[in-house]
């Protein structure tokens, strides 16, 4: 972690430097030790401003704070940086989850390993399965769905003659789609 503190119209006291260093240490948990901070503090009449620039290999963030107290201005700038950092970390985690989910689905379907550039392969293999041709009731389709590993069952409803889709939601409940 590298920190550079500059003051425009203010003297940087050891207490102010220690306060800034203490507050910026928490960013190493999110980004690791390879971080560069540039802290700029400034005073104009009753306004005390702090601007913090955070730089990593992949990301640059900036936060500004302006109050009547320098310590509060620094905290406001750090809070803005925290929100940006957490948002960025959330995007990274969600991206990893999406890639892992696509990889597991592809493996279950026997498609193969997805590439890093695209999750769907260039030539997709379509697997065919034979299913019952006879019409089913909703109760029979429910039994079929509970016995299978699939998330849905498409069937011709024996009561209405329509094609219906019965699917299992993530919370475990079942839903029925009527087609016309």
Counting DSSP E segments of at least 2 residues, the number of strands comes to 7
Distance between the termini: 63 Å
CATH H-level homologous superfamily name of the largest domain: Ribosome hibernation promotion factor-like
Please give the radius of gyration in angstroms. Answer: 29 Å
In helices, the fraction of residues equals 25-40%
Instruction: Describe the strand arrangement of the main beta sheet, using strand numbers.
Output: 1-2-3-4
Determine the mean pLDDT: 84
Question: Describe the biggest sheet?
Answer: 4 strands, mixed
Low-pLDDT runs of 5+ residues are none
State the oligomer.
single chain
Categorize the overall geometry.
elongated
Plain-language structure description:
- The protein has 180 residues and is of the alpha+beta class.
- It folds into two domains: 105 residues, 2-Layer Sandwich (Double Stranded RNA Binding Domain); 41 residues, SHC Adaptor Protein (2-Layer Sandwich), CATH 3.30.505.
- Helices cover 37% and strands 27% of the residues.
- The chain contains four helices and seven strands, in the order E-H-H-E-E-E-H-H-E-E-E.
- A four-stranded mixed β-sheet has the order 1-2-3-4, with helices on one face. Strands 5-6-7 form a three-stranded antiparallel β-sheet, covered by helices on one side.
- Strand 6 and strand 7 form a beta hairpin.
- The longest helix is centred in the middle third of the chain and has 40 residues.
- The model has no long low-confidence stretch (mean pLDDT 84).
